[in-house]
């Protein structure tokens, strides 16, 4: 399966994620939805926040040009909120899966979809 198929067939097809991307832990883009783009600085800060979330806790998490309030930050998952939309970022062994949801989607639904894909990729060695 291609990386783009995980975006299209797993994340977006769930209808619990409205935008998504997968980046390598080196910041490289593996796959993305057409309307979602992380700047090099945004992805660099995100990846470093899994080991030290102090920056995003104080200044917010930026993704796709949007600022999110960092809700949950640990070495596996980072969740952010902006009004009634949000973002879920989950790190696997070699990549970070990023799923954004809009105001029509319940945060819990979006979280389950991204976390399950991360669990699957980890089980496959990624």
UniProtKB/TrEMBL annotation:
It comes from the Eukaryota. Keywords: Actin-binding, Cytoplasm, Cytoskeleton. Pfam families: Profilin. The keyword Phosphoprotein does not apply. Signal peptide: none annotated. It is found in: Cytoplasm, Cytoskeleton. The keyword Cytoplasm applies. Transmembrane segments: none annotated. One of its GO terms (molecular function) is actin monomer binding. GO terms for cellular component: cell cortex; cytoskeleton. Occurs in many kinds of cells as a complex with monomeric actin in a 1:1 ratio. Belongs to the profilin family. Binds to actin and affects the structure of the cytoskeleton. At high concentrations, profilin prevents the polymerization of actin, whereas it enhances it at low concentrations. This is Profilin. It comes from Smittium simulii. The lineage of its organism: Eukaryota, Fungi, Fungi incertae sedis, Zoopagomycota, Kickxellomycotina.
């Amino acid at each position: 399966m291609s990386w783009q198929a995980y975006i299209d067939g797993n994340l977006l097809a769930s209808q619990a994620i409205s935008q998504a991307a997968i980046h390598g832990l080196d910041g490289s883009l593996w796959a993305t939805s057409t309307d979602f783009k992380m700047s090099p600085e945004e992805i660099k800060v995100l990846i470093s926040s899994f080991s030290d979330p102090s920056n995003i806790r104080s200044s917010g998490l930026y993704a796709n040009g949007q600022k999110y309030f960092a809700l949950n930050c640990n070495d596996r998952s980072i969740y952010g909120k902006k009004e009634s939309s949000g973002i879920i970022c989950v790190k696997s062994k070699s990549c970070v899966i990023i799923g954004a949801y809009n105001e029509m989607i319940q945060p819990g639904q979006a979280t389950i979809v991204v976390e399950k894909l991360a669990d699957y990729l980890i089980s496959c060695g990624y």
